[in-house]
Amino acid sequence: xxxxxxxxxxxxxxxxxxxxxxxxxxxxxxxxxxxxxxxxxxxxxxxxxxxxxxxxxxxxxxxxxxxxxxxxxxxxxxxxxxxxxxxxxxxxxxxxxx
Amino acid sequence: xxxxxxxxxxxxxxxxxxxxxxxxxxxxxxxxxxxxxxxxxxxxxxxxxxxxxxxxxxxxxxxxxxxxxxxxxxxxxxxxxxxxxxxxxxxxxxxxxxxxxxxxxxxxxxxxxxxxxxxxxxxxxxxxxxxxxxxxxxxxxxxxxxxxxxxxxxxxxxxxxxxxxxxxxxxxxxxxxxxxxxxxxxxxxxxxxxxxxxxxxxxxxxxxxxxxxxxxxxxxxxxxxxxxxxxxxxxxxxxxxxxxxxxxxxxxxxxxxxxxxxxxxxxxxxxxxxxxxxxxxxxxxxxxxxxxxxxxxxxxxxxxxxxxxxxxxxxxxxxxxxxxxxxxxxxxxxxxxxxxxxxxxxxxxxxxxxxxxxxxxxxxxxxxxxxxxxxxxxxxxxxxxxxxxxxxxxxxxxxxxxxxxxxxxxxxxxxxxxxxxxxxxxxxxxxxxxxxxxxxxxxxxxxxxxxxxxxxxxxxxxxxxxxxxxxxxxxxxxxxxxxxxxxxxxxxx
Lengths: 98, 493
Description:
The complex is a heterodimer.
Chain A: H1 5-14, H2 21-38, H3 73-77, E1 83-84, E2 87-88
Antiparallel strand pairs in A: 1-2
Helix pairs in contact in A: 1-2
Chain B: H1 5-13, H2 19-37, E1 40-43, H3 45-65, E2 76-80, H4 107-114, E3 118-123, H5 157-164, E4 170-174, H6 181-187, E5 190-193, E6 214-218, H7 221-231, E7 261-265, H8 275-290, E8 294-298, H9 306-321, H10 339-350, H11 353-366, H12 372-395, E9 398-402, H13 418-423, H14 429-434, E10 438-445, E11 451-457, H15 463-476, H16 486-492
Parallel strand pairs in B: 2-3, 2-4, 7-8, 7-9
Antiparallel strand pairs in B: 1-3, 4-6, 5-6, 5-10, 9-11, 10-11
């Protein structure tokens, strides 16, 4: 299984990762190796085997729906790169070539 | 600082040492040894000494009033830097959280603080706990105190090295695919990975949510039992934490191993295993047999699939969990004209190579057209691995196996070849995939004097028996008493 550069670029886009040319080439090779290795799972007959998403017994956890204090606003904003008027500040969502 | 947790607590209780003295001693050991070992990313002397003084005041007061004191009052510990600590920088070994100061404590940390611990600092880790050597930290590798040119294992390599070098009596770690047990083995300390759901994951910055567990590294099983007792139990802030009776704080002493059936999976003694590792593990099993254990060969037939299953499921979960790091709510931000470019650039530049590799792998495994073949199939094979354990525990009480195929490898040995690094995890991944508890502890040394570990694995919520058995072995041997001297080693070079 050999990934193409275009495939790597597509995955990087889905994952919101800006990669350099060298990184694209490096990940193309390394991810191809890993995918070759994990392909051994495909030889295993798993018909009738249910998937395991959690090792815990299936159950529903309930609690009273009661309001309780949240973190203070300053504490929540304290780690942000940019804030304004008590809110997170971001650059325009639409702009440039959009 | 050769004291175990139990010894330190006894000395504190008897008034032989104050928390300030103990904490100062810990801080001076860190100052002397950590320039060589680099186990710590952050050391917090001011807040630690303040907490120590407060602990001493409380103890003095309790002595006057006759009130009981919290069980760990005044005990200095370290915390892996993927666990949130209120007011103390928590980086996950990543530049993307370079300046992140959590506004809350992880539940495990909060419970230990309520029990009286003094936090002296945060330990190094592979970035977001993704790695088996601590080489993937954005802040430099941790050196194995037994041989500074070798890795301490990972991802809780900083915690393991700190306990091995006797800088702290205990350090918290996390284990998603072996990240407590494997560094414990490489560094010659005891490492407990609880059952999935035993200890709340709240405040553990998520890597693989169906696999992540919070554990502890100590010198002895006795110490690990006390920490588990204090951290365990249901937490309303983590819906996967289970309402199960918490294991006792102290281990019920056993005379011998009589009545215990210990299974030895034949799949864990494969060609790739270093002969010294097999020898030490077999010798430990012989001793257990001499002490009355019934040792039985068993089979965990799907062991060989643990690596491919893990390296699809964990990256898939990671790709979702790490979507939150986008330069908006925490961490530095790369400048760009639109919000989307802020995401791409911040993530592209501030995540390290292994994190990006796993995000890409997970994204691919979950993407349209590949989901069933990769992620879906991996989840089904995970069921087969889990059933292997369920079957085994109808025949035996415990499973004993090597922790890793080799002793600590050289820094840089696997860095060019990620797949060869992944294969190092072959013996630790199955317990995470099955959700069962494990404990690693030292059972010998190889020809180079590097520690070798053995792990017990038990059925879900079977920690009490794991701890009893490990404790009994430690009563009969002194491997866990050996400590490295990084300063002497540095002199030789």
